[in-house]
């Protein structure tokens, strides 16, 4: 089957999002599990812990969002498809 | 599903200047926030009613949170950070008003907000520590790290922009796709999730802005 540049771009976008979501998902799961563990041990420190957790999750999530941006560029602003 | 999230949708032209939909929504949100604040604080000498008390609770809460992050007097930073938070909450929650699109779901508004945070971090840093001392922290562990420090400044601003844009825009996309596939009632849980996402992203943007300003001022070490 002949693959056009558009079809390859769509496949590339899907691969970027799907595989790019794996790593941040695992990382966020570990971070939340560790935070839950810490809150269960010390419930009085839930406030600072959850704030730090949110900032850390935002940092981890950035990687997935970079993949989303790449996928969007491939779909909507592809420089190789006129 | 033929709307391109990266290109601006122009509503009309004001002379040579194109006016896009996010700009109109932004000015509407600014007018709304100004109106609410004016209604609450128009007589500052008298004891206020319910609206003013609620707004004072909000401001006090933001001040406490910023103080916990920056670990110094939060009031010099509160005009920027509080306005940022309230504007982002209003902008992200404008998705639940039918017919409105959140201005943070287009690339321009998060870009401008991230540039404001980037510039104000330098401003507060120079004002708190002096220009020489502030510039010296770029070569702080070793001068070899100067390019990496500059690169991290740029990438964290970029990721601040992309994080807000990506979350809000992708939520809009998900709701549009689910409404396209499944019709009337199924998008409602996704819309509820969108309220949560909007609030969390406004919070995260403000907390990260506070962390960057705190790092520039020199009271917190994390960046």
Contiguous uncertain segments of 5+ residues of chain B: none
The rounded Rg of chain B comes to: 20 Å
**Count of distinct strands of chain B:** 2
Query: Approximately how much beta-strand content do the residues of chain B carry?
Result: under 5%
Q: In whole angstroms, how far apart are the ends of chain B?
A: 38 Å
How large a portion of the residues of chain A is in β-strands, by DSSP E?
Answer: under 5%
Describe the strand arrangement of the main beta sheet of chain B, using strand numbers.
1-2
- The assigned structural class of chain B equals mainly alpha
- Would you list the SSEs of chain B in sequence order as H and E? EEHHHHHHH
Terminal CA distance of chain A reads: 22 Å
Structural class of chain A: mainly alpha
Largest interface: A-B, 16 and 19 residues
What kind of sheet is the major sheet of chain A? none
The chain-level mean pLDDT of chain A equals 87
Topology:
The complex is a heterodimer of chains A (82) and B (223).
Chain A: H1 5-41, H2 46-76
Helix pairs in contact in A: 1-2
Chain B: E1 10-14, E2 17-20, H1 21-41, H2 50-70, H3 78-93, H4 108-129, H5 131-136, H6 146-182, H7 187-217
Antiparallel strand pairs in B: 1-2
